[in-house]
Amino acid sequence: MWELRGDNRALASTFAFTFVFRPMLKYISFGSALVVVGVLLNYGLLGLGAITAKGRPKPSPASGETNRL
Amino acid sequence: MKSSEGGQSAPVSSRAKLAYLAMLIGGVVLAATGIGTFVLGKTAMSGWVLMAHVSAAPLFAIGLAVVALTWAERCRFGISALGESAKVKALLWLILLSGLVVILSAVVPMTPLFGTSGQHTLYLTHRYSAIVLTGAVVLHSLTQARSSVKMSKPSPSGA
Fold first, then answer.
1. pTM listed for this prediction
2. B122 touches chain A (CB under 8 A)
3. Please, are residues B29 and B142 in contact by the beta-carbon 8 Å criterion?
4. Smallest Cα distance from B42 to chain A, Å
5. Rounded Cα–Cα distance for residues B32 and B21 (Å)
6. CB count, 10 Å around CB of B84?
7. Dist CA B20 CA B151 (whole Å)
């Protein structure tokens, strides 16, 4: 086929060889994306918690309320 | 946060440095092949350039994931003990966010989830988010290099 297309043989065979690694590329990419999503969600929710905590009324010690968390 | 504005931040661990270096090496190859083709090329990326681009992608993806794990804590807003300047923190979160978009917009077209127009949209998303990512990485690494030079220089008072 590469002869018919007028392609470089080395390029065509190397390109064909890369398809062996294609599933690995997908696993690595999705795995890395999952890790980054996890970190972004974790710290994003921590940041959201810190922001909403500023607007939350603090329990007064006299009322006897304790922080159940 | 204010205590870290003067460039006095805790030293970066060797694992974090290694991850950042891996991300940087992968990113340089990706930017050279990707943005280089976009700016200079008349046709779509193909052949050796495409293979170099895709070969550098796993290094960048793994580097970005480890950077996310090792740099996130020191780049939390509101934490000044370990922290960096607010600019560096914002840039790191921008790197992680745009890096995620870049990775997903590159890999999702390999699945049968999107049709032709969806793949075209993902291709454009990949291109423009990669440009944002490159800008953020360049600014972040320049700021880091500048602050490390500042830290290594002895103060004029001799203290």
1. 0.83
2. no
3. no
4. 19
5. 16
6. 27
7. 19
